[in-house]
Specification:
- With 663 residues, this protein is of the alpha+beta class.
- Helices cover 37% and strands 21% of the residues.
- It has 24 helices and 24 strands.
- The strands form six sheets. Strands 14, 15, 16, 17, 18, 19 and 20 form a seven-stranded antiparallel sheet that branches. A five-stranded mixed sheet has the order 2-13-10-3-9. Strands 5-4-7-8 form a four-stranded antiparallel sheet.
- β4 and β5 form a beta hairpin.
- α12 packs across α13 and α16 crosses α17.
- The chain is globular, with a radius of gyration of 29 Å.
Length: 663
């Protein structure tokens, strides 16, 4: 076992070293493939030997914990807020006030990162807790989510007894743009700015979602330290940097007001080209003992101010309004603009999100509009200059048919997005194929995203039904493929034909129908024909299928294109039935909730067992709950079950009930 432990510690060190080389120093020493191999080896060892896994393992960066709620954390040192100033006179007043009290004072000027303020706590150099600012005195414990952030060091170079630092969690501009693009494609409202996106990401209960958002952090202050710290803020930042933190970038020590103003202007000129969003520059007294003597007024320190840059807005014209179809079928209107320079770049288009956005602002082709960059990144129309509207303009109307395929367009009640309902729409084809072949669907593992994209480009796949008509010789003729690759793809596709109906229903990508709903529907209707003919009332009578899901199913099968797709799949030999399973009765008539982490089963597996044994798997505890299956790290569900007098069992008792060993 000692060799296993040594290998795990060695892998942890190697992964952290190479991660820093790649991300912080931009000088990777190994390939991505070699790095991935190291990471996968560590994950495998941690799965086989969980008791030897380090609480600071780099595998935490990918998340995987789902919290039921965030616990409250009291900050030993208040996380205050700054006084805002909006012109240089305000900065000059602050400078004069400080100099009157401390004539030899100097200052540090740094970027004001637009993100979410947090406190990180380290004991003996190990990260143990992280919390949001909250109201400055009490925040929320988001430790697990913070561990997914690459720039949060899990272990620092200084083994101090206790250190608490303050930092700003932010979302890089590129990540923000990609996230909003993805949300637009999925018909979700885009985030207004990187700060909102960062805050929403850090407060995800599922740490995997936070990890996917690729947040970063800049540390800018020592809140508390049990050992003496350097006497000035600038030296403290250097100390933090040497300890392993990513600190405020480009901070500068200034002695005169002229130097301060010049630095603020320099940051303002560079802000558009920074990879992160800022909403100002911060001017701080450098000497920490002077800060102590200056004190605070309420929660606002007297030793710092934040200079806020004004947003830049310009006037231009709407030349046309076009509609794009995203990979999820969402129709997104876009304004084509007369090119105009704003915030450091030329803008010629702006996303209009959805018809509600256009209607609210009454944006029309030919209008003169005011534009700016949301969060200094994404062009947006702020308002219409009504007095300059030319005669004859007409309100914009979303098309009733898809611009890409001519399929029917619907807008579900309560949703802002309009969608194309044709599952074979060319604009959606790649996404549909990727979903269709995914593990939870038809599980054709040899047909990955890059291969699917290539087959679509070559014209081999024009709908998911074509997967079952692929020509082995044509595939083998492609460069980089060959006979063996072609045979593997054809064999995997052939094997997938026998998947149960539930997998096919999920693979079709019907809106609101996930894996669990697909299984429920397949068990109820047993054949594809019965499912397709189901009425709205019959669908809503199925457990956990509400009006919204029923409406989506009706809309899906009302499309002639989708009905034709089912016919083609059937002709190609794809199974259209669900096997009738023998059911146990261990949980007959019971409503069972699973909470915490089980050792031998995932939560999904446990819930599937409950349903196979006559029970209903619920997600929350109520008076109707018959039984709570409790694993480790249980939270509020356990407390609520105790309060309501719900019977509580552990995993071993759960397994014994399945076997009929206990009632």
């Amino acid at each position: 076992m000692e060799k296993i432990i040594q290998e795990m510690r060695r892998l942890e060190g190697l992964i952290e070293y190479h991660s820093k080389k790649y991300h912080d120093e931009d000088s990777p020493e190994i390939s991505d493939y070699e790095y991935d191999r190291l990471f996968e080896r560590l994950k495998t060892l941690e799965k086989e030997y969980p008791r030897f896994a380090s609480p600071n393992s780099p595998t935490f960066r990918v998340g995987g914990h789902v919290a039921e709620k965030f616990e409250k954390v009291s900050h030993p040192v208040r996380l205050g807020s700054l006084t805002d100033v909006f012109d240089y006179e305000g900065v000059a007043d602050f400078y004069r006030r400080v100099k009157t009290q401390f004539p030899d004072a100097d200052f540090v000027v740094e970027c004001k990162i637009d993100g979410l303020s947090v406190a990180l706590e380290y004991i003996d150099g190990i990260f143990v807790r992280g919390a949001t600012r909250g109201n400055g005195l009490v925040g929320e414990d988001v430790t697990r989510n913070l561990k997914t952030i690459r720039s949060v060091p899990l272990v620092i170079n200084q083994k101090l007894p206790r250190l608490i630092v303050r930092g700003e969690v932010y979302m890089p501009k590129k990540i923000f743009a990609r996230l909003n693009e993805k949300r637009e494609e999925e018909g979700l409202a885009p985030f207004a700015n990187p700060r909102n996106a960062a805050a929403g990401s850090l407060r995800q209960l599922d740490s995997r979602l936070c990890a996917e958002r690729k947040l970063e952090i800049f540390v800018f202050n020592i809140q508390l330290c049990d050992t003496p710290v350097p006497p000035t803020h600038g030296e403290c930042l250097e100390f933090l940097k040497n300890s392993g933190f990513t600190v405020s970038p480009g901070f500068t020590v200034c002695k005169t007001y002229e130097e301060i103003e010049a630095k603020i202007k320099e940051i303002g000129e560079k802000r558009q080209n920074l990879p992160f969003d800022i909403d100002g520059a911060v001017v701080k007294v450098n000497n920490l003992s002077y800060r102590e003597r200056m004190g605070e007024v309420g929660a606002v320190p007297r030793w710092a101010v934040a200079f806020k840059y004004p947003p830049e807005s310009v006037k231009t014209k709407v030349l046309d309004i076009t509609v794009q179809v995203g990979r999820t079928g969402v129709l997104t209107p876009k304004a084509l603009l007369k090119p105009a320079a704003v915030s450091g770049s030329v803008v010629s288009a702006a996303t209009l999100h959805n018809i509600d956005y256009i209607t609210e602002k009454d944006i029309r082709t030919g209008d003169t509009v005011i534009i700016r960059k949301a969060g200094d990144i994404i062009p947006e129309i702020v308002s219409v200059v009504r007095e300059e509207r030319p005669e004859g303009t007409i309100p914009f109307v979303m098309p009733a048919t898809c611009p890409s395929c001519g399929g029917k367009v619907i807008r579900e009640e309560g949703e802002a997005a309009a969608r194309c309902t044709n599952s074979s729409c060319p604009a959606q084809l790649l996404r549909n194929v990727i979903h269709f072949v995914s593990r939870g669907a038809m599980d054709i593992e040899t047909l990955g995203e890059s291969t699917a994209e290539r087959f679509i480009e070559e014209g081999f796949i024009k709908s998911v039904a074509d997967i079952y008509k692929l020509d082995k010789a044509k595939i083998a003729s492609l460069s980089g493929m060959g006979e063996k690759s072609a045979e593997n793809i054809i064999t995997a596709a052939e094997k997938s034909k026998s998947r149960p109906l539930s997998r096919l229903i999920f693979a079709l990508g019907i809106r609101h129908v996930g894996e669990k709903a697909a299984k429920t529907l397949a068990k109820r209707f047993l054949t594809m024909d019965s499912f397709m003919k189901a009425t709205r009332e019959e669908l809503e009578a199925v457990p956990d299928i509400g009006p919204e899901t029923a409406e989506a199913i009706i809309n899906f099968f009302s499309s002639a294109n989708n009905s034709a797709l089912i016919s083609r799949l059937k002709e190609n030999g794809v199974n259209m039935t669900e096997p009738v399973e023998e059911k146990g009765s261990a949980f007959e008539g019971m409503t069972v909730v699973v909470t915490g982490k089980l050792e031998s089963l995932s939560r999904d597996e446990a819930e599937e067992i409950i349903e196979k044994n006559g029970g209903k798997a619920a997600s929350s505890v109520s008076k109707k709950t018959s039984l709570l299956v409790c694993g480790t790290d249980a939270g509020s569900k356990l407390d609520k079950a105790k309060a309501l007098g719900v019977k509580i069992i552990d995993e071993s008792e759960f397994l014994k009930m399945i076997k009929g060993e206990i009632q």
